[in-house]
């Protein structure tokens, strides 16, 4: 479960994944909306991990 | 003072500034403790801040006024590269989630207030404690100065000139921090954060509709970079490694600073911190949207004297005076919260890891609180003098070095949570190598944060802070192998430290 915490590092630290203009979303080039999308996604992944460890105190 | 002061803007600005001033002083009575004459109360708010207070406080003190001003300015100046702050403030939270609950537990159970306390407790080394504590203080000083620069930009945008307004604002800040401690910025953070959210929401809804939508904003920025021949809305190949290493290095450094650690130590529990790691990215969304204001500046065709003026000028140009005043107040108050927490964090370090150790070991809890209060004043006066007397560029350069310096405390502070293999001398040598080596590199590169390395004829630029950290860890490992080999009884020091009360 804790491995989920590594996902944002993989998704964001390998820039060739997302250094593109297309596809655009609401006028945002891919570079921008892809990184912005990682914000709620990271929150969600962290929440899943939290649910699995919160009873550890 | 000049004649072109926008009265509605000034009135709104003054109203909100007075509001938070009153709140700052009233905060001493908020969740009133039996006495504020104890460092746990003055400097950590009693370690009782729950999820929401912590969310507002850490959000308010991690996302500084400089973020509001400098990130859009960098994006305005060079485009996509300035966005490294976005991945930085995303990947920092899984790290906070994994590391900070452990650190909090150690601090809570042994009564630690600062990073210096933690290091002394783990390794029993006064020298390492002093190294970590003094690094914290000197990395924080220029950071406070930068908050003042952010505040200056907002005040200047109102049309006020001269040094009186900034001196006045800082005097107010210094006095209520003195009397209320961490409770003041914690309470003011509620106002600050809500104001910033309102400002950003207004900007991202209203501005594109005036400028023809986001597609037009990006197109205008692209055309502006094209015309300038520098920057762009995508990264060029030489910017990839700097972008990633700056993001990673900044994320590793972020929660080593005294002001962010203070927010962590002040929270009520490990789960409070974990929940905040889930909830704090909301501010990162804000930061990403704020950064776009840099592009909106191009779409609005602003003529700027300095890149730092992009956000204030955008609001002055596109919004009615009263709302511009609200936005400037948000920026200025946005500078007050981190400046207060930073001065408290630095004061805690000085009191616990210098005064109590080297000057007066028998200091009472009340005496500790007194020393910290006075230190927080002196730290702020120092920062004020620095921006009034020294060139602004000097504060910016020092802030840059501050990030590199604070990163060098990571091995001493964090490694001990996971392993008892490292010994104090090894970590101290590692710290010294990273600190000095990194500073020399930055200096020889003309105070630029990137250092060019050549492999096989291929040159890549890497964030110097990360290189210094690599040197730090390498030296620590090598020295530790040597020290461990010589040690006769290599018992884990973390266990030995359990015996200390740490109070």
TrEMBL record, chain B:
The keyword Transmembrane helix applies. InterPro entries: Na/Glc_symporter_sf, Na/solute_symporter, Sodium:Solute_Symporter. Keywords: Membrane, Transmembrane, Transmembrane helix, Transport. GO terms for molecular function: transmembrane transporter activity. GO terms for cellular component: plasma membrane. The chain crosses the membrane at residues 6-28, 49-79, 85-106, 127-146, 194-220, 240-257, 278-302, 322-350, 371-392, 398-419, 426-443, 463-483. It is a multi-pass membrane protein. Gene3D superfamilies: Sodium/glucose cotransporter. It is found in: Membrane. It comes from the Bacteria. Coiled coil: none annotated. NCBIfam families: monocarbox_MctP. Belongs to the sodium:solute symporter (SSF) (TC 2.A.21) family. This is Sodium:solute symporter. It comes from Sinorhizobium saheli.
């Amino acid at each position: 479960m804790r491995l989920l915490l590594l996902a944002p590092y993989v998704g964001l630290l390998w820039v060739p994944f997302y250094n593109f203009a297309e596809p655009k979303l609401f006028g945002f080039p891919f570079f921008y909306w892809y990184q912005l999308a990682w914000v709620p996604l990271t929150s969600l992944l962290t929440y899943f991990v939290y649910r699995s460890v919160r009873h550890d105190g | 003072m000049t004649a072109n002061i926008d009265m509605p803007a000034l009135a709104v600005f003054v109203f909100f500034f007075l509001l938070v001033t009153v709140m700052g002083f009233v905060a001493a009575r908020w969740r009133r403790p039996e006495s504020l004459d104890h460092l746990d109360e003055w400097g950590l708010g009693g370690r009782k801040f729950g999820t929401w207070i912590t969310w507002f406080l850490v959000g308010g003190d991690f996302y500084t006024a400089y973020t509001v001003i400098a990130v859009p300015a960098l994006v305005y100046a060079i485009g996509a590269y300035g966005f490294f702050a976005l991945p930085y403030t995303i990947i920092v939270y899984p790290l906070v989630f994994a590391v900070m609950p452990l650190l909090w537990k150690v601090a809570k159970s042994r009564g630690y207030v600062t990073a210096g306390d933690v290091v002394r407790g783990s390794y029993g080394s006064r020298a390492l404690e002093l190294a970590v504590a003094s690094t914290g203080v000197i990395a924080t000083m220029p950071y406070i100065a930068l908050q003042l620069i952010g505040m200056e930009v907002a005040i200047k945008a109102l049309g006020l000139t001269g040094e009186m307004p900034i001196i006045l604002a800082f005097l107010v800040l210094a006095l209520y921090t003195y009397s209320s401690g961490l409770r003041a910025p914690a309470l003011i953070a509620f106002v600050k954060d809500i104001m910033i959210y309102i400002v950003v929401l207004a900007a991202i809804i209203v501005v594109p509709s005036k400028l023809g939508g986001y597609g037009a904003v990006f197109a205008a920025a692209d055309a502006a970079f094209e015309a300038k021949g520098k920057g762009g809305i995508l990264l060029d190949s030489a910017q990839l490694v700097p972008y990633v290493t700056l993001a990673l290095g900044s994320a590793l450094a972020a929660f080593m600073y005294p002001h962010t650690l203070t927010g962590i130590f002040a929270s009520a529990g490990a789960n409070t911190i974990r929940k905040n790691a889930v909830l704090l990215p909301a501010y990162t969304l804000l930061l990403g949207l704020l950064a776009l204001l840099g592009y909106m500046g191009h779409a609005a065709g602003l003529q700027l004297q300095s890149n730092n003026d992009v956000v204030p000028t955008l609001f002055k140009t596109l919004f009615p005076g009263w709302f511009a005043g609200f936005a400037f107040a948000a920026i200025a108050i946005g500078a007050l919260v981190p400046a207060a927490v930073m001065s408290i964090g630095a004061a805690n370090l000085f009191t616990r890891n210098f005064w109590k150790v080297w000057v007066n070991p028998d200091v009472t809890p009340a005496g500790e609180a007194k020393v910290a209060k006075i230190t927080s004043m002196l730290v702020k006066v120092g920062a004020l003098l620095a921006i009034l007397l020294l060139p602004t560029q000097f504060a910016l350069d020092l802030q840059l070095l501050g990030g590199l310096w604070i990163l060098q405390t990571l091995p001493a502070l964090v490694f001990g949570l996971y392993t008892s293999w490292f010994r104090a001398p090894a970590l101290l040598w590692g710290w010294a190598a990273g600190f000095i080596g990194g500073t020399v590199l930055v200096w020889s590169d003309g105070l630029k944060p990137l250092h060019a390395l050549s492999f096989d004829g291929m040159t890549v630029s890497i964030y110097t802070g990360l290189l210094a950290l690599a040197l730090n860890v390498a030296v620590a490992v090598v020295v530790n192998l040597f020290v461990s080999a010589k040690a006769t009884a290599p018992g884990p020091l973390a266990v030995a430290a359990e015996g200390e009360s740490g109070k």
